Give the backbone structure.
Amino acid sequence: MKKIVIALTNIVFVVALAHTTACSSTKAARKPSAEDAARQALVRELNALVAQGPLHFETDTDVLTDESQVLLQRVAAQMHRVPKVRVMIGGHADERGDSAYNLALGERRGMTAQEYLLRLGIPRQRIHIVSLGEEQPVAMGHAEDSWSQNRRDEFTFLLPGENRSVLNIGAIDEDASDLIASTTFVAE
């Protein structure tokens, strides 16, 4: 009985010591640095820009609309202002056509946006494209209202930082940047 009491006392002591140590090692919340504040401001700006997208296309075409060109001009202006920002463009198609055709169409759409950004002076190495064809629809349905939402280019902004090798819309380099803001929607 005496051994049980000693064992229980030791257990209580160890638990109390562990609790005290855990509570005393809790770090105080650090104040955001100027760099953190600047990053948060940039994220807000990029989110506001993303809220204006994605780029939409007419059926079976990769021609940018006037509205899409204006949005890409805003994207380019932001990328000129903050040279470390990169963009990944994901080209999509609606469900009509076979998979190979839709992947090719999504790639052409992404390349059209990339070419427009290049003409606006954004270096090629800051623009990545990926085609997802019909694989990630934002609107489920088999009518024009759904198809028109699925014919799109989505863009994801990237900044240097924590390495992230795979995003929702495709794989990027191993030394890739952190996802900042994206027009990528996940179909439920």
